[in-house]
Amino acid sequence: MSLFAARRLVKRFGGLTATDHVSIEVEAEEVHALIGPNGAGKSTLVNLISGLLQPDEGTVELDGVDLTPLPSYQRVRKGLSRCFQVTSIFPGATVRDNLLLAAQAHSGSSFRFMAPRNAEAALQDRAHELAVRVGLDKEYDRIAGALPHGAQRKLDVALALAADPKLLLLDEPMAGMGPEDSARMVELIQLLRTDMAILLIEHDMNAVFQLADRISVLVYGRVLTSGTAADIKGNAEVQSVYLGTEVHA
Ligand code: ADP
Ligand code: MG
Q1: What number is the average pLDDT over the span 114-140?
Q2: Global pTM?
Q3: How far is it, in rounded angstroms, from Cα 19 to Cα 222?
Q4: For ligand 1, what atom is nearest to the CA of residue 36?
Q5: Under CATH, domain 1-79+165-249 is a member of which superfamily?
Q6: Residue with the nearest Cα to atom 6 of ligand 1?
Q7: For residues 158 and 135, is the Cβ–Cβ distance under 8 A?
Q8: What is the largest distance, in Å, between two alpha-carbon atoms of the chain?
Q9: Residue 13, Cα to own-chain centre: how many angstroms?
């Protein structure tokens, strides 16, 4: 059984079917990328999976738990974290305080039996460890909102990691990045993949072809095809969907 499975998800907006019986699975330690032209239903699918939208039909399951009836914050507790494209950052606070807040929010009862001073030290350790993990330790005492875009995206990833996810949902992590920052984000995702499964929605085909074990192509709310990078590059239907775009990396 797969670690994660979205099964036959349907979402209608009035007469428009944004996702039409979409099924997608992610195995443990797999990076599964989802690509597709504008309007294909990628964002709708991400919102159905993270719980911002309720499906008209279908289910979402992680590690044997049916997440479909749960709101977003409870899905996070069950191991599904999503990056929110910087919007979850407190711009006026330091990197440290952003991470401390996130670490505290997800600490649950883990510090309950510690003396307050030890609990505080454990939280500080956890926050710093998150900064190191995404490569923000040098920016630790800087104000988050004053960081360059690429660093803010890393902080966003670190905030999602605070929940210790089994599945990390990355919605266009390279959006608005130059080639240097994109390359660093690819490196970061390569590091993370050893610890968690990743569902990656991304326009940057180079990044997708470097990272993905499997790629699914969404078109008009349906999965057109799924396969390895080589399968997708050689698929004539995919090429016609992406006519004018660079599919060959
Ligand atoms: P993508 O992220 O792949 O570009 P979206 O999921 O944003 O695609 O959109 C899929 C389709 O659903 C589009 O035709 C879009 O206009 C429509 N859609 C998305 N969200 C809404 C909404 N809240 N209300 C009405 N239509 C929507
Ligand atoms: Mg979108």
Answers
A1: 90
A2: 0.91
A3: 6
A4: 3
A5: P-loop containing nucleotide triphosphate hydrolases (3.40.50.300)
A6: 41
A7: no
A8: 63
A9: 24
Task: Identify the residue with better confidence: 63 or 237.
Answer: 63
Q: Which regions of the chain carry the CATH code 3.40.50.300?
A: 1-79+165-249
Strand blocks (E) in 174-239: 197-201, 214-219, 222-227
Beta strands in 120-229 (DSSP E): 167-171, 197-201, 214-219, 222-227
Task: Provide residues with CB under 6 Å of ligand 1.
Answer: 13, 16, 18, 36, 38-44
pLDDT of residue 249: 44
- Residue 182's nearest CA partner among 170, 190, 173 is 173
To which residue do tokens 């719980």 refer? 51
Lowest mean per-residue pLDDT among 56-70, 85-99, 186-200, 204-218 = 85-99
Atom index in ligand 1 nearest the CA of residue 45 equals 6
Report the nearest-CA residue for atom 5 of ligand 1.
41
